Amino acid sequence: MSSTLVEKADAAADVGIDPTAETGIQSFLVTFIIRRFDPEVDEEPRWVDYDVELYSTDRVLDALHKIKWEVDGSLTFRRSCAHGICGSDAMRINGRNRLACKTLIKDLDISQPIYVEAIKGLPLEKDLIVDMEPFFASYREVQPFLIAGSKPEPGKERIQSIVDREIFDDTTKCILCAACTSSCPVFWTDGQYFGPAAIVNAHRFIFDSRDDAGDVRLDILNDKEGVWRCRTTFNCTEACPRGIEVTKAIAEVKQAVLRGR
User: Fold this and answer.
1) 3-state secondary structure the chain
2) Burial, 232: exposed, middle or buried (Cβ in 10 Å; 0-12, 13-18, 19+)?
C-alpha cells in the first residue's frame, strides 16, 4: 500500500470515515501466534496470539510493528532497513525461515493463524531475538576478506575478467541474515558446525582470482565440523532470501578440497 493511500486511510479514520470505502482496498483481520520469551519472568517460551487488521500488501514486519506500537510494546524483535538488505529480521514464519520485511501477507494463508518464532540453533535471548555471536564467530573464522600476496601497480586496480567474476558472483549476495544456517538440521544438533553462511562466504573468496589464500580457507573447512558435515538437505538453499544456491556452493567447496583447488 502506497504512503499516499496510507495517509488517506489514516485521515479518513480520524474523522470517522471507513478507510476501506475511501481507498477501495479491503483490510483483513489476521491472527498472529508469536512465541514469546522474557528471560526475566519466563522459565520457558510461551505462545501468545494477537489479532491485527492488515492489508494484503502489508508485510509480516508491518504486523509486528503494529503489535508493538499499538498492542504490546514489550514485543521484541530486530529490524533495520526493512527492505531485505540488512538481514536483521530473519525469523521462522509458519515453520519456514524468512525475512519478515520480505514476507507479504497476501502470500500467506490468512484463513489460518500465522505462527512466528525466533530462528533455531542459536541461543534465544528474548522473544524473536537470538544471540548471533556463534554465527559471526564461524563467519570470522573462514577469513571472509581479500588476502593478496602482492600489491597492484601504483594507481591500478586488480583486474578481473567477467568470466572469473561469474564463478563466485552468486555468493557475493549473502547478507548474513543466518536464515540458511539456522535452517540446517546439522547446525541445530551440532553447534560446532561452521554452517552454510560461513561456507558461502569462504566460497566467495576461495574462487576469487584476485585472492591468494584459498588454500588456507580450504584447510579450515576440511575439518570434521567443516563442509563434510553438510548432508545436502537443501534447507539452506530454500531458506535464502537472496536466492543464493547455497547447497551448490558447498558442493563446489567440497570439490575444491578434493582436488586441492
Assistant:
1) CCHHHHHHHHHHHHCCCCHHHHHCCCEEEEEEEEEECCCCCCCCCEEEEEEEEEECCCEHHHHHHHHHHHHCCCCCCCCCCCCCCCCCCEEEECCEEEEHHHCEHHHCCCCCCEEEECCCCCCEEECCEECCHHHHHHHHHCCCCCCCCCCCCCCCCCCCCHHHHHHHCHHHHCCCCCCCHHHCHHHHHCCCCCCHHHHHHHHHHHCCCCCCCHHHHHHHHCCCCCHHHCCCCCHHHHHCCCCCCHHHHHHHHHHHHHCCC
2) exposed
**Cell numbers at 115, concatenated:** 505462527
- Centre a 10 Å sphere on the Cβ of residue 164 and count the other Cβ atoms it contains: 14
pTM, rounded to two decimals = 0.86
Residue with cell 497476501: 106
Give the separation between CA 241 and CA 93, rounded to whole angstroms: 13
Which amino acid is located at 127 in the chain? D
Local confidence pLDDT in tens for the 261 residues of the chain? 444 444 444 544 454 445 555 566 899 999 999 999 999 999 999 999 999 999 999 999 999 999 999 999 999 999 999 999 999 999 999 999 999 999 999 999 999 999 999 999 999 999 999 999 999 999 999 999 999 998 888 999 999 999 999 999 999 999 999 999 999 999 998 778 999 999 999 999 999 999 999 999 999 999 988 999 999 999 999 999 999 999 999 999 999 999 876
